[in-house]
Write a structure and sequence with these properties.
about 130 residues; mainly beta; 7-stranded mixed β-sheet
C-alpha cells in the first residue's frame, strides 16, 4: 500500500510558477512509476507527466512540454512538478499517482492506476 499526499497548489497569475510536491508513505515509492494528472472543470482526468522508478526517464503531455518538469527524490519518497509559464487553461485539480506498471493506459481518460492522492487545486488567473 502507498499513500500519496500532494501539496503546493494555489492561485497564481498567468505567466507565473508553482511547484507541486507529492509525498509517498508506506511501501517505498522507488518501486513505482510516478505521475501527475489533472482534471479541469467539466473535463475528464488527463495525463500531465510521468517519471520512471530511477528518475532517469520522463514523459510529458504535449500541452505542458517545455513548461513543466517532473522530478523525484527517492531518498525523500517525494515527487515534484515544477510548473512555469502557467496559463489559465492549466487551471485544474492536480493529482499524484503511482503504479508498478507504465504503459498506454496512463494516457487515456481517467486512467486505472493503483494509487492516487487527494489532489491539490491550481488556479491560474488571466
Amino acid at each position: 500500500q502507498v499513500q500519496l499526499v500532494e501539496a503546493g497548489g494555489g492561485l497564481v497569475q498567468a505567466g507565473g510558477s508553482l511547484r507541486l510536491s507529492c509525498a509517498a508513505s508506506g511501501r517505498t515509492s522507488s518501486s513505482y512509476f510516478m505521475g501527475w494528472f489533472r482534471q479541469g472543470p467539466g473535463k475528464e482526468r488527463e495525463f500531465v507527466a510521468a517519471i520512471s522508478r530511477s528518475g532517469f526517464s520522463t514523459d510529458y503531455a504535449d500541452s505542458v512540454k517545455g513548461r513543466f518538469t517532473i522530478s523525484r527524490d527517492n531518498a525523500k519518497n517525494t515527487v515534484y512538478l515544477q510548473m512555469n509559464s502557467l496559463k489559465p487553461e492549466d487551471t485544474a485539480v492536480y493529482y499524484c499517482a503511482a503504479d508498478v506498471r507504465y504503459g498506454s493506459s496512463w494516457y487515456g481518460q481517467n486512467p486505472p492506476l493503483d494509487y492516487w492522492g487527494q489532489g491539490t487545486q491550481v488556479t491560474v488567473s488571466s
